Structure prediction request, 470 residues.
Amino acid sequence: MAKSIQEIDSFAEKLPDDTRASVHHASKLKTEKRFATLASDFEEPDTLRKTAARVKQHTLEHLDEYLLQAEASLQRNGATVHWASDSEEANATVLRIMQQRGAKKMVKSKSMVSEETELVAYLEKNDIEAVETDLGEFVVQIDGDHPSHIVTPIIHKNRKQVARSFEREGLGAYTESPEELTAMARRHLRAKYLAADVGLTGANFVTADTGRITLVTNEGNARFSMAATKTLIVMVGIEKLVPRQSDLPLFLSLLGRSATGQALTVYTQFIGGPKLSGLPEGPEEMHVIFLDNGRSEVLASDCREILRCIRCGACMNICPVYRQASGHAYRFVYPGPVGAVLSPLINPQGFPQLADLPKASSLCGACQEVCPVDIPIPDLLVRLRRRGKLEKAEKASINTPGFGVWASGATSPGMWRAGLKMGHAMNYLPRVLLDVNPAAHAWQEHRDLPPFDGGSFRSWLKEKDKEAGK
Ligand code: SF4
Prediction:
């Protein structure tokens, strides 16, 4: 059995019962709400999904043009645009912006891309305090944990665990009341918002025609992150573009419903640029960092459809493997079916280390059925399995001594010619084998082994060349 499945299996086996129960309960609930909301609000939700898929696919196929258009629109709005080819470059850009302004404190809202680049750890190493302000991400940060879901980072925790963490960090006395726990986090984070120099957010969408950043949250923390800070940094993957502002109603209709079963998330913000002169609040400058980090290669591969993903989490909520194993079993930022495709492609460890993830699926197809952009996840998983198999076979053949000898003979013209001459000895070999090997004898009983006539094509070609006077 594949190594990865054993790994996920053993991870699931060791998963504490209360963690499994939290993951299973929350993901099941979200899936049910998703079905109910989409079915009650739209006559043909499937048509919406297919339309959204076409818009995103079109965007990907013209990504070079839309990125340039987005850059020009953002610059027109007064934002500064940066391009980062990998995590290191993106993190270094954030650090440089902060250091140039003498900034030491950052508040950040939820951003999977900054998880991907491990921004917080990078900034901490450089003496910058970066505080997560999304409630789930905040709990993950104080616990030294990692998110296990792209929409609900602490889906693997229950309120008792959160209460113990808050008590340990001195946020307040132990309580299991969600309202009191939220109030504690709010009090703690308010002080951080006011003290911060820089706010950092991700982006759910960037519209190429208007250069607007669209952000959806349920807690309003992204608004706070930019209300009191002078500098706003947006870190976003290059695939988050949509061509037009008028495409947003389609995507926003699908995103909230697919993610949490909400018709719309509580806060939806459209950020056009830094604050206009005369306005009382808002960041004075805005920087947008577009991150590639392997996405160009994904775009050039036969798995490019995965870049349509709008990070709703519906595929993991419905996935029977995710529900049993939880997000940490996937060993990278993106868990569940989307992660089983995306992680092996963009993880810095490279494909071989995570090539097992595509095998952790029954290919039941539920992930594609719920995906708001109709990504053919099962097909992509099969393609990656095939790729894993080919790479393994290639590696095995390179490492096999017999193939090594064959490769040196076949790639050296001198050795090849000598081999052809010596090949005539093959005509006698089967007779020798017949004498000593009964299996070879049986094989030849019904077959004629043609005599080896190596090199005749070369002599024939030489003759022809001579005749032609070459
Ligand atoms: S692959 Fe589809 S269902 Fe999964 S997170 Fe992305 S958009 Fe949502």
Observations:
- The mean pLDDT is 90.
- The pocket of iron/sulfur cluster is lined by residues 258, 309-315, 338, 370-373, 375 (CB under 6 Å).
- Residues 420-467 form one domain.
- Strands lie at 80-84, 105-108, 129-132, 198-201, 205-207, 212-217, 231-237, 241-242, 267-271, 285-291.
